[in-house]
Request: fold
Amino acid sequence: MGFQTIELQTEGGIATIILNRPKALNALNLAMVAELEQAVHTVRDDPSVRVVVITGAGDKAFAAGADITEFKTMSPVDAWMFTQRVQRVYLEIERLPKPVIAAVNGFALGGGCELMMTCDIVYASDRAKIGQPEINLGMIPGAGGTQRLSRLIGKQRAKELVLTGEMVGAQEAWNLGLLNKVFPPDQLMPEVKKLAEKLAAKGAVALKAAKEAVEEGYDIELGSAIANEGKLFGLCFGTEDKVEGVNAFLEKRPPQFKGK
Ligand code: CAA
Reply:
């Protein structure tokens, strides 16, 4: 596919979306958001894709946020439309029926941090720097930052990051609960690959159900959330993968899931 601002590579059931404007630290301009949306639809609709990885080109940035040069002439309505579009794409990523891994290879700021937070598992380089610096531009996060951050790390700590606009290093971001694991830069992609391969070997229906149970249940009352979990649990019992998983356990062999 002829993308200009991103790359989409697929191999062995793993699709890797690379934000590819390294000279601008992979800042998300309008073109990149549109291409990201297209790539998300492609990986969502391609049954051969079992796991998605999102990372940034170069060794400096995952994404340094929205492209600030485009903000100079944006009207309030343009800005509203822009955030609505980014929010829609980010929600789609969060709700993809397959696992999404963020490989945070450097700065993840503003819209980059917000993108990172939509991913299911976040691995980062120990050089990563994370933050919501919008306050320094006289604005606030507009792609879910005020909401996902407070849900992930708590209101108090989220407000500290959003109000000061200060970045935190990888270790502090891990302490806050924003990152799953931190690696030296040269080990990041090999570790992400290992994780992606591990996930790709699981049953696709169970992965989708597990993700849906967590995502759908997160913001609702516990009784309804676990009732939903129970239905998704039941649904897994209609799959060939459940038969295979249980048989493999009882026969003391590794399962061979087919995604059915
Ligand atoms: N938009 C556009 N260009 C950007 C950019 C951005 N968000 N971030 C970096 N760049 C560009 C720089 O302008 C520079 O371009 P030139 O070489 O043409 O001058 C190039 O990328 C390299 O950046 P620096 O020279 O600044 O690199 P540095 O190592 O000195 O600093 C940095 C790195 C601390 C990340 C700094 O670039 C920075 O503060 N960037 C802006 C981060 C930011 O404020 N992000 C939030 C954007 S708003 C947003 O995201 C809203 C939302 O929620 C949707």
